[in-house]
Design goal:
Length: 747
């Protein structure tokens, strides 16, 4: 990449910067650009209500960085703009960047940031967006090198350098039954309910219903929606039960469907909140004393207050940005490296719109203050940091860490998934559900959007067509004569999922659903052709279009496998697995095609923290009993990916923007301190143990372990996931579960 940056010209570099930083900054970045851009290629965000005051960005390939920065600032001011900060992006490496930034910030009285070639290289793999920017604008500049020879040096990605992924995968593999996690989640949901109900008072008729409670929780923690929403009704009932050992935590007004905190709970929470608030106030006072003791001339009382606010916010942001690394360093007897807070300090100064010479003054004061907080802290400061550590650990355990979300999204983008007929039939059965309830459909579509290659095989297509034909026979022979008299209890006992899906729709799940069985089938293929050969082509076209799938026929699959091994496995599955020959051969072909695809793509020799790319996505498990020797002969690499893996870590995972929003809301608030009580000591210490284990491995070994752990998690058939199971262990997804929930509500 450094070679490409050295070759790129002006306008292509500007386009690269717009795409690159558009990915890094998201909606906070607005590209401008053009020959008459007034010195600006883009601005990051508004910093005041006056739109002429913005944080600008300039891209340039010029060597004379210092001169170009001065010219850019002058040019912005000539165009009537009042810049508060300028990010200067150059394709050249710059020596002593920090010293040059300080010099120009002092001279020009606006905040200057310089992002040179070294910065661009170090962040090239931060996201799919930054990678796409490189591939589109820079890769072609180095293609000639491919003919000469390419480097074989493997560099560790940020997922390997940072301990987050290693620790999370270690936790997930250890807690296979999910029991500990379910208790933790129930405690967290209870805490959030209690927090949401603060301010309620029956004497003043201040009550809240379930929807209002959920809305308040999601306003500060949008990343936990998939954990909280399905559990909220049961937790409200549990907290209001008279049979609780410690009495009712909340009061329920059943006729009104509303809740409030009883007097005893309000008094208890008030005492706890006062204690937490006192701690926070004490820490603020301690930091204020540190700042006053080293305040430079000209800062003034307002400057001191700003410095205190920036110092507190810097600590909070460091938990967001550095996460487990920062927490681990706080537990160490060795002094914490201050370099870890420098980026957080810059972000805190940005939030407060502190720029120019004032930024330098306050930044230096806060930096020295935090050195004291981290190197020589008071008891109150240590207690505050410890509480924030536990709150971060809690959010981390709930998969609300943006680094984890990015890791699984990046992993999904590399997948080659042979989608099993069972998953595609389940997706078809969801056709009459609301979009949000179409779990399998959404999982497949999100995987494709993330970059996964979904493969429809001829074998899977045949099984789906024959399944639809079997459903048609079932419906015509059993249900058609008495269709108007079918009840839910009768419908739910049909052995065919597509028949159940149609009957649930007819019984009232959706008013706009199909009014007849042929109309239901017509959503996928022409009903009149269902028992004709043209159905195979029609259904294939539908599935490929609906789920962005490629297609492989049996001839292509047989080219990937050994003919003798295929015959032997088919015979084993037919005899021991009690399957018809066609189905046994289909399964055998899928198993061996996965390994053949891996060999063809050299996945065994690829070096990546994401593990194997090619899998059979299916809920089929019986075949596993007969393929142990094949797995062993392939270095123990499994071939089945459990659908719940994708469901949990892709479909139901919070959006990265929601995760960042949760951190931004939680840590500055009192809730950031009070939530720490819900992280028990044992799992917190266990997490720190995994951090130390990660730190004791060099990057090469850590990458290998992460790849191994990720493959184990993909194929773990016994793991219970938080977002897939309720407190009672029931699955949230599937037409039968949804129908049962709907009928229970309406009975």
């Amino acid at each position: 990449m450094m070679i490409a940056l050295g070759k790129i010209q002006g306008f292509p570099f500007e386009a690269f910067v717009n795409d690159f930083f558009g990915s890094l900054l998201g909606k906070d970045f607005t590209p401008l650009g053009g020959v008459k851009d007034g010195g600006a290629d883009g601005f990051e965000r508004y910093v005041s209500e006056d739109s002429s005051k913005k944080s600008f960005m300039q891209a340039s390939i010029r060597m004379d960085v210092e001169t170009k920065v001065r010219q850019t600032v002058d040019r912005l001011r000539e165009f009537g703009r009042t810049p508060t900060s300028l990010t200067y992006v150059t394709s050249k490496p710059v020596k002593a960047v920090d010293a040059l930034e300080d010099k120009l910030t002092e001279e020009l009285n606006i905040t200057i940031r310089i992002r040179d070639a070294n910065y661009l290289v170090s962040h090239a793999n931060d996201s799919l967006g930054t990678q796409a920017a490189y591939n589109q604008h820079l890769r072609h500049l180095t293609e000639s090198l491919d003919q000469i020879g390419s480097s074989t040096v493997v560099t560790a990605s940020r997922h390997v350098r940072d301990p987050s992924v290693f620790v999370f995968l270690s936790q997930e593999l250890e807690r296979r039954d999910g029991a500990g996690n379910q208790t933790l989640v129930a405690d967290v949901v209870d805490s959030l309910i209690m927090w949401a109900l603060e301010g309620t008072d029956p004497d003043q008729d201040k009550l809240m219903n379930e929807a209002e409670i959920l809305e308040k929780i999601l306003s500060v923690l949008p990343s936990v929606e998939n954990l909280v929403k399905p559990r909220l009704p049961k937790r409200l009932v549990a907290l209001s039960a008279k049979t609780r050992n410690d009495g009712r935590a909340i009061r329920r007004y059943k006729s009104r469907g509303e809740y409030c905190l009883p007097y005893e709970t309000r008094r208890l929470l008030k005492d706890e909140n006062q204690s937490d608030e006192a701690l926070r106030t004490t820490v603020e006072s301690s930091i204020e004393e540190r700042i006053i003791g080293s305040v430079p001339p000209g800062l003034g009382e307002v400057g001191v207050l700003s410095a205190v606010k920036v110092a507190i916010r810097t600590l909070q942001l460091t938990f967001e940005h550095q996460g487990l690394t920062f927490i681990s360093s706080l537990q160490s007897d060795e002094p914490t490296e201050l370099v870890v807070v420098s980026d957080s300090l810059a972000a805190a100064l940005d939030e407060e719109s502190i720029n120019g010479q004032r930024r330098t003054l306050i930044g230096n004061v806060v930096y020295e203050c935090l050195r004291g907080v981290l190197y020589d802290s008071t008891a109150e400061e240590r207690a505050y940091l410890h509480k924030l550590s536990r709150t971060y650990a809690l959010l981390f355990t709930l998969n609300s860490e943006p680094k984890l979300i990015d890791y699984f999204q990046r992993m999904a983008g590399d997948f080659h998934l042979y989608v099993g007929s069972d998953q595609l039939v389940r997706a078809l059965s969801e056709i009459c559900l609301d979009d949000a309830d179409r779990i399998v459909t959404n999982t497949l579509k999100m995987a494709a959007q993330a970059g996964a290659k979904l493969i429809l095989t001829e074998a899977a297509l045949d099984e789906i067509v024959y399944h639809l034909r079997g459903c048609d026979h079932e419906f015509q022979n059993t249900f058609a004569p008495m269709e108007d008299f079918i009840t839910y209890e009768i419908a739910r006992n049909s052995p065919k999922i597509m028949v159940r899906a149609y009957m649930y729709s007819r019984l009232g799940k959706r008013k706009e659903g199909p009014k007849s069985w042929p109309a239901f089938i017509n959503q996928f293929c022409t009903y009149g052709d269902l028992h004709k050969s043209q159905t195979f082509l029609a259904l294939r076209r539908y599935l490929q279009n609906e789920f962005s799938m490629s297609y492989k026929d049996r001839i292509e699959l047989r080219e990937l496998v050994d003919t003798k091994q295929l015959a032997e496995l088919t015979e084993t599955l037919e005899e021991d697995g009690n399957k018809k020959f066609e189905l046994a051969e289909n399964d055998a072909l899928m198993v061996l095609s996965v390994y053949g695809h891996r060999r063809k793509n050299y996945e065994h020799s690829n070096i990546s923290e994401f593990g194997y790319q090619t899998w059979w996505l299916t809920g089929e498990t019986r075949v596993l009993r007969h393929t142990g020797q094949i797995v062993s002969s392939n270095a123990g690499g499994k071939y089945v990916m459990r659908p719940d893996f994708l469901l949990n870590f892709l479909t139901l995972a919070p959006a990265a923007s929601h995760a960042r929003a949760s951190f931004s809301s939680i840590f500055p608030s009192l809730l950031g301190v009070t939530l720490s009580r819900r992280m028990a000591d044992a799992p917190f210490k266990k997490m720190l143990g995994f951090v130390r284990e990660s730190e004791n491995l060099n990057e090469s070994r850590r990458m290998a372990v992460i790849a191994d752990y990720s493959d184990k998690l993909k194929s773990d058939l016994h793991r219970q996931y938080l977002t897939v199971h309720s407190d009672s262990g029931e699955q949230f997804s599937g037409i039968d579960a949804l129908a049962e929930q709907w009928w229970n509500v309406n009975d």
